[in-house]
Design goal:
about 475 residues, alpha/beta, Aldehyde Dehydrogenase, Chain A, domain 1, Aldehyde Dehydrogenase, Chain A, domain 2, seven-stranded mixed beta sheet, six-stranded mixed beta sheet
Length: about 475
Amino acid sequence: MTTATQPPTAPPIAVTDPATGQVVRKAAAHTPPEVERRVRAAHDAARVLRGTDFATRASWMRESAALLEADAADVARAIVTEMGKPIRQARDEVAKSVRTMRFYAGHAAAFLADTPLEAPERVGARRALTRYQPLGVVLAVMPWNYPIWQVIRFAAPALMAGNAGLLKHAPNVPDSALYLDSLFARGGFPAGAFGALLAGSDVVEGIIADPRIAAVTLTGSEGAGRAVGAAAGRAIKKAVLELGGSDPFVVMPSADVGKAAATALAARMNNNGQSCIAGKRFIVHTDVYDEFAGLFAEKIAALTVGDPFDEATDIGPIATARGRDELAAQVDDAVAHGARVLATAATPADTAGWYYPPTLLEGVGPECRLFREEAFGPVAVLYRARDEQEAVALANGTPYGLSSSVWTSDPEQERRMIDALEAGAVFVNGMSVSYPELPFGGIRNSGYGRELGPAGIREFCNMKTVWIA
């Protein structure tokens, strides 16, 4: 395996509290020999997993879920310390992860059952079917914004399919990575079946090229996706890429405007606004624009920004100083080009933390960075649409295509917009949400492949065609 670019003794990985800007502790990075040991252990475990049945894997997965549920309070506190989301949302993240583990424990066998071909005699066979079998070791390159859930939505289906997993987590969430490193072994999975690599991004290309790695999945930036996708292409290996988005939230005249505005607040501000699937561009028909804008602005201004450990806090800090500065630069650029700030919420004074005020903008034109870039923080942009055609054009007018939301009570308009919106998902009269039951993923610069649902567990399987004379 090629890991020569990593120094023999890599610098430690820091846990920095985004609410204070202070380093809480440092974790030792894995050396190249340790990375090699973990890759070898995963490869050995994949051979063992391939020979186990679904019932055995399900028992291990359910036990792992029970352990995570028992550890929920401690895990939630670690999430808040590492990336700053409000404690209530951190607990929700853990609960969602537990539910997903149990979902795949209960459904994997059915999702991967043999699929017989009807009338096999048409292809000259007594029997013909497709069978799903694991690929081997899957490398996961994961982000910090949902440090447990993002990993579980890959790990639960991958392990239940009989694959082993290696996690290269974001460098600012090492405690989450180390917790997950031990979770599945504690639940009964073979040693090495799931392991974390505390290493820099410079090792990723070499690990993808390693013949013991069968596939790779990444959730992250467009740039990271291009790099990982290129490395997987060179190695001729399966890749699933989820690269974020700038999701439209479209409100038409027949919508329940009050409900749409209340949902818009949750859609944009959940997770401190740092969610790939969040509504980011709010496209409102001119007939209801002023009503929606007034309600939305009022709700944003009333948000409580502060200590993420406080149960009353709605918005905590941005996870990194770089992320906060990038968001500020995007908003400053928009204002410099004539955009108007309709509302902001007060942020804590005299703090070294990486807070940014929840902000609502209008008048953001094509010359602005926010018009074409994803805003990863509590910033919402309003657009006025004259009619349905202009609303659809604005919705589709970015290089992304992860998810979308449309609000209408007109059945024909609903049908037209479901067809017209270019995205991996359309939610009608509700916010975009990921569920273990629903396939999740995007098109265009939002990536390719699917997680979750039946499609998510099949991504890292060989669909083998079987023909029996």
